[in-house]
Amino acid sequence: MLFSIEPKSRREDLYDFDHELGMLVRFLRGSRLTLVTGLRRTGKTSLLKVALNEAGIDYVYVDVRLSMYAGYRDVIDLFVQALNELLRRRSSIRDRVINAFRGVEGLKVSINPPEISVRFRGKPRVSIADLLTRLNEIGEPMIIAIDEAQELRRVNWLRFDRLFAISLIIYRT
Ligand SMILES: Nc1ncnc2c1ncn2[C@@H]1O[C@H](COP(=O)(O)OP(=O)(O)OP(=O)(O)O)[C@@H](O)[C@H]1O
Ligand SMILES: [Mg+2]
Asked: 157: domain CATH number?
């Protein structure tokens, strides 16, 4: 499937990039913050997805492409979708993920099928800081992979730099 237009996620579908892949896997395993930058359509998402699958560490993958008029709910939805994708992909840690997210205000956690959803009504709103803290409580190292991170500039009412600082602190403890 070398010529499919989708980003690749399997090693055998990734052409070249041996050196970059080796480096990225090493960074994912050993450093707190890694940035992948490059021109459009040069394989950043493919490289990231393959590296995530090769690193042997749990991860959530969040594609943060947002519409022009994205609201808080849209941002939360992206993170919750990413958590649900983790639940589907990693059945062996499913119970721990579900338990970690129980009792988060504004979230509904179902067991069968395992799924996390945002409650439509009522305050308080779900906080992303809370989600990151709960993710840490799973007790496994966890990579938070943010694709299209430049899009977060649109969400200028949320301080992502501070949120990332929280995850770096969590990483250290
Ligand atoms: N090394 C590679 N091996 C196989 N396919 C690749 C490789 N690099 C890029 N592609 C293909 O090129 C296209 C663009 O790749 P990808 O989406 O990974 O790039 P990107 O840099 O993330 O792009 P964008 O800037 O749009 O986010 C996809 O069809 C992808 O499958
Ligand atoms: Mg991309």
From this structure: 3.40.50.300
